[in-house]
Amino acid sequence: MPQQKDIVKIAIQMPGAYPQLIQLDQKKPLTAVIKEVCDKWNLPGPDNYALQYADGIQTYITESNRLDIKNGSILRLTKAPGRCAEDLYKGIQSSDSGVRCDSLKLLATVSTDITFAQEFISRDGHSLLVKIVEDAHEAPLIMTHTLTAFMELMDHGIVSWENLSSVFTKKIASFVNAKVLDTSIQQVSLAILESMVLSSSSLFNEVKQEVTLERLLSHLQVTNQQLQTKAMALLMAMLQAGREKDRQELFEFLEKRNLRQYIHKNIIHSSSSVGDEMAHYLYVLQTVRLNHLEPRMRTPLDSYSQEQRDMLHGLRQAAFETESESGLSNERRRSLCAKEFKKLGFSNNSNPGQDLSRCPPGLLALDTMAYFASRYPDAYSRFVLENSSREDKHECPFARSSIQLTLILCEILRIGEPPSETGSDYHPIFFAQDRLLEELFCICIQLLNKTWKEMRATQEDFDKVMQVVREQITRTLSSKPTSLELFKNKVNALNYSEILKLRQTERLHQEETLSPPVLELKERLKPELLELIRQQRLNRLCHGTLFRKISSRRRQDKLWYCRLSPNHKVLHYGDVEEETEMPSIEALQEKIPVADIKSVVTGKDCPHMKENKGKQTKEVLDLAFSITYDVEEYSLNFIASSRTDFCLWTDGLNVLLGKEMSSESMRSELEILLSMEIKLRLLDLENVPIPDTAPPIPKPPSNFNFCYDFSQAEQ
Q1: Is 266 a residue whose pLDDT tops 60?
Q2: Is the Cβ–Cβ distance between 68 and 82 less than 8 Å?
Q3: Least buried of 350, 597, 611, 619, by fewest C-beta within 10 Å?
Q4: 298, 359 Cβ separation under 8 angstroms
Q5: What's the pTM value of the predicted model, to 2 decimals?
Q6: How far apart are CA 653 and CA 39, in angstroms?
Q7: Cis peptide before 360 (omega within 30 of 0)
Q8: What residues contact 693, with CB distance under 8 A and at least 6 apart?
């Protein structure tokens, strides 16, 4: 008695007969099952029949795949693969062209099944197809069916591609090279040549000799997308197969013939959409071309290379109008160079080559900077001079930013990564521009400077700015711009405030998808976390901050310090010297009781901004705040050194006055804290012991020789 798990309930069909509903015993031989089915329909010769799936891919059922049959499957009783192979073998040799055509058409369909393919090849049927191709006497439709059937049979790997004769290869190549021929024949011929190229290096060389590359490129100019795709598939196969030397020669030929422009004009620009297969080949070509930059990306600057040293000093000379260095002493020349390299934004100004020792981006960063300086000299000089002349700690370091931006672009474009077998993420802009990386860099380095100013960033905000710039680039590229100008317009429109809006929208969308219990937990956590932020703001006010006074001539001169008393009742302030770190409360001569503070005003509403109405920059307006006290006739006026200090102080003062905090820093910090806290609360801590006390601090190491000495880098 068979066990229940060995029984599968299925239906079996046959044209002209009622279906049979049977319980298939998987332990019973398939021949016995087929005999029982034939007996119920009174069919003689059960050996001439087989079972096949009726729906989807109509695969023959064999002893090796019968366990894949599921309950409810519908099978069909059909000709056994051996009998079918024999009939088709005879049919394709018929003197009647109609019979040959029908037989070859059916052969192209059933050859996808490996069981049938084995039977047909065992009768040497594939050799018969090869002869039909070599003779080339058949009509286009019959030839198309012949080539399709041959391709399906060869895909099973039963017969080696290397067994094919050179006559066959030349004939297939002639189909591809022909200027006037049925496109269906050319499509299948291109697919056959692609498989031959990928199968062995000897066939690669044979195909390379027979196929006219000019004709392949012409196939990319046709309107038939399937023909374009097959031609691109063969080109990509030839770029990935064969010896390195052969691949390089082919790559250089395609570069000279400007394959990129062929693709942009005839495939991307002229098509509303690109198929999945073509998208994969475009991705492969993009990867292959970009990976030619990998050696530069993996190579650090060589301080002994005169060419590289000249490129480095060329950046300095292009930015600054320096006097002739020939009459200067070595010490004076080194001092001048170090000063200018520092203005350029190099961290190691005495030896800027050290900044380019990290790989990636290696020498690629030097290449992109040099390209920007030579291709857009005005924009380059404006960037460097604008930032090197600033004295308010808001300067954007060109060299440091360029090195990091080049690394970001390498990561986004995946330079150095081999093409994936399933990848399809290509950038249309890549095919619109010859030197994509360099041109993207030129746009993005100016975008970086713009974003830096929008964020009012200081050196401490460097990583934060780079994260925003990465987001600006990736979001813009994801919209698939087809030209550099379109990319430039889109990425510049995506300013910092737009990024914040998008982040907020995405956060709200994420919140909408949260389950009600998580939303409830989030609301319960908010008061506790807001109190934590309030205490941090008050602690910062108690620590105090150094502020600058800006005179009517807008020169930064005197310094003053302001801090809150530990009991949160009095604001102490007073003038201090340049190098004062944190003066004591007793050293600050002036004070304002918190109880006397009436309000906090910001921006153009501040008294000191009203006095100089129309004279202050937007940057200063955004950093200005004042507190009014007594009977609103007096005010204490501030100009924060950074947006961070502005947010901390305005939040802290609002907390003192019992008002809500409203800065963007508070919203960002609250979101981060909420996200972290919710993740911690939702952790699966079952059977995880949580200690009652903090773990002991480990003993210090025996020496600190592993520490990096930053003082050396700053010299």
Answers
A1: yes
A2: no
A3: 611
A4: yes
A5: 0.65
A6: 94
A7: yes
A8: none
- Neighbouring-strand partners of residue 574: 561
Average pLDDT for the chain = 86
- What 3-state class would DSSP assign to 253? helix
Structure confidence at residue 262 (pLDDT): 74
Q: Is the dihedral of CA 690, 694, 699, 700 positive or negative?
A: positive
Range with the largest mean pLDDT of 401-410, 456-465, 664-673, 701-710: 401-410
- Neighbour-count burial for 409-428, b at 16+ CB within 10 Å, e otherwise: bbeebbbbeebeeebbebbb
CB 629 within 8 A of CB 598: yes
Give the pLDDT band of residue 76 (cuts 50, 70, 90): very high
**Tokens representing residue 409 in the block:** 């672009």
DSSP letters for 555-579: -EEEEEEEEE-TTSSEEEEEEE-TT
Is the predicted pLDDT of residue 80 greater than 80, yes or no?
yes
Q: How far is CA 299 from CA 293, 294, 296, in A?
A: 10, 9, 5
pLDDT of residue 326: 57
267, 278 contact by CB (below 8 A): yes
* Structure confidence at residue 557 (pLDDT): 59
Q: Virtual CA dihedral for 11, 15, 16, 17, nearest 10 degrees?
A: -20
Taking the C-alpha atoms of residue 619 and residue 603, their distance in angstroms, rounded to an integer, is 10
Residue 713: the pLDDT is 44
- Look-up of token digits 């490996």: 114
What's the Rg (C-alpha) of the chain? 37
Taking a C-beta distance cutoff of 8 angstroms, is the pair 155, 119 a contact? no
Percent of the chain whose predicted confidence (pLDDT) is above 90: 40
How far apart (Å, rounded) are the C-alpha atoms in residues 98 and 80?
Answer: 24
Of 274-278, 573-577, 664-668, 698-702, the range with the lowest mean pLDDT is 274-278
CA distances (Å), origin 41, targets 44, 60, 163, 486, 704: 9, 20, 45, 69, 89
For residues 405 and 383, give the distance between their C-alpha atoms in angstroms, rounded to a whole number.
15
Give me the torsion for CA of 464, 468, 471, 473, rounded to 10°.
Answer: -120
Q: What is the per-residue pLDDT for 329?
A: 66
Residues 6 or more apart in contact with residue 646 via CB below 8 angstroms: 622, 623, 625, 640, 663
Nearest one of 310, 465, 351, 332 to 397, comparing CA atoms: 465
